[in-house]
TrEMBL record:
Protein's UniProt name: Poly(3-hydroxyalkanoate) synthetase
Basic residues bias (residue ranges): 728-737
InterPro entries per record: AB_hydrolase_fold, DUF3141, PHA/PHB_synthase
Stretches for region Disordered: 726-748
Originating organism: Halomonas caseinilytica
Skewed-composition ranges (Basic and acidic residues): 738-748
Amino acid sequence: MYAMMPPSPSTAMFLLDPFGFNRAACDYWGDALERATLYLDVMRQRGNQYLEHIEKTKPNVLGFEAEVLLDGRDLPSPVNYELLRIQPPDGVEVDPTSRPFVVVDPRAGHGPGIGGFKPDSEVGVALRAGHPCYFIGFLPFPVPGQKVEDVVEAEIAFLRHVIDCHPDTSEKPMVVGNCQAGWQIMMAAALEPEVFGPILIAGAPLSYWAGERGRAPMRYTGGLVGGSWMTALLGDLGAGLFDGAWLVQNFERLNPANTWWDKQYRLYANVDTEAGRYLDFERWWGGHVVLGADEIQYIVDNLFIGNRLSTAQLVTSDGRRIDLRNLRSPVVVFCSRGDDITPPPQALGWVRDLYEDTEDLVANEQTIVYCVHDSTGHLGIFVSGSVSRREHTEFTANMDYIDVLPPGLYETTVTPAEAHSDAELIERDYLLEFQRREVEDLDREVQHRPDDDRRFATVARLSDINLGLYRLFWQPWVKALATPETARWMRRMHPNRLGYHLLSDRNPMMGAVPVLADRVRRERHPVGDDNVFRGLEGIMSSGISQGLETWRLYRDGLIEQSFLAFYGQPVLQALVGLNGDAQALRRRPGAEPEHRRFIEQRRRATRDRIAEGGDHEAVMRSVIYVLGGAPASDERNFKRLRASRAELEPGIQLAEFKHLVREQFFILKQDRDAALNAIPTLLSGKSAKQIEAHLEHIEHVLAASGELSERAAARFERVRELFESAKPKRSGGRARARRPETPAGREG
């Protein structure tokens, strides 16, 4: 009887499709259609979010509550910037007497707020460390007539206000500048160095001609279009406004595989879980803002093409030279080899542009610390949660230490605490170590080529010629035809903006999408990763991505070779007035005779102070001397040294401590043997017990970062002998200090 019954549906399906390909195909295509519907609905939400965002008076993507303290539109030279005080979230307490942190937002085409985009951000890190936090943001449209100089002066005014808000804090604010904001705050610090504490510039380009061949295609852009006349044209078509969407489009073209496929496919493939993260990011990425035509023209002419910032050629309208050697605050440069917008040569090249060698840098009393990440991209430098929890947390925790570092060039490395034998003594999950470097060591990252300098100098000259021709023949006609209304329509029709409008509820054809998407969510039938067709989809996606990446490599190579061939022609260089020599445009400022005289005067003044001071100077001089022989140092040395100083002289301020460290460093740098032999003189009048206590303090500080190297240990033994020789010896009832001779051949 059972044999006469028809087979069950599953049995029949197995007989018709023994390997399951048809069933897998049906399941896959059903899932693919559902994902396509949900993907289209996310695009609709993105469009609605964009339209809502740009229609706000003060749009931003800050993830923290904030209050406006100063509005830049009320300043004598009004600008569209404002100073905000960040309100700590629930459960986070800040100490109003701690060093304030100021994060300056980059204005490079996107909307404001990226520095405080989420809890694991620069703002979040500073708040969790207990620091009062401020944010300098901007509005979508510039004030008519505002200039780059006005913005720089506004940022200086904002910092003065922050200092006034903390009268009981002796430390100046730490200032963080991301991307475009980095070079802007460096300009401000060069003009008014006294209002700045330590400066952190993350992914900020300062040397625009620098770059490694094959890896920095954006630096060729100005040459490919014949200079900055195109910028002037777009500003004129915009009726005095420049659409930031053009800048965003340039960024997107750097990585077509990600822009045209990977980012969208990642959403499509994981639409059930990826929508929230995608929309959060697009809220910032798509929040295009507008710059003044005069602003962007200044930036392109003087920075991107002229490269005048890192060579001290910029002069303000009132005659002040913007020279980065004027900075008196430590500068932390954070960049990444995975950054194709600001590669390490452009982030670090300004040091090589300004300084001939380390002696030149030290003579200017500059402290420069750099950290090169191996892989993170441009946005990851100041947005990535993992980078914030690691590098930014360590920079924040070590900022007081960085502030008192002696002048020089340092490279930092961040290592897990468990990698150290004394991990139990390390307060956090990571340890930031500092290693001394020479300016010449930067050549590995900067890869400077004089022949490339000649090419970029040729671009700068040709740009001036083409811009002059445009202004003479075409600009009057363009300005006569452009109106605010045509400019508004041109912005709306920009490809980067148009997509948001078309895929939004304002398009009647999108009306059915939310209804279909809601039904799909209620009756979702996802397939697993074991579906063979889902696997084939992933393989196809990888192939498309690799194809676009191959095309990018070919395109970038063609652009580079075309640029090098065209602008490398001696005839062209001679025609624009260079005659194959770029030195007229790129002379290192440190080579000027007046600068050499300044350095020599400083050296003479330092030599005169070798024997001045007392036991505090002797202790600091000894510690600096010994640590100078160590391969690396970290914050533990600083904390113990500062604690020892507090015991010796209660109430000492960080600024006084910093002055002492720097003064003793310069004395050692000028004449080390004379400085060491003067230690007994500095200790004269102290009892043997006091001198022994100083030696114990020095040992305590030096032991903080582990066992001393052989070289550092030898230096400490020399210091011990000097201190021992300074102990009073009774001779005829009077105490006297003996100054030992430096043994011949002793390690210095």
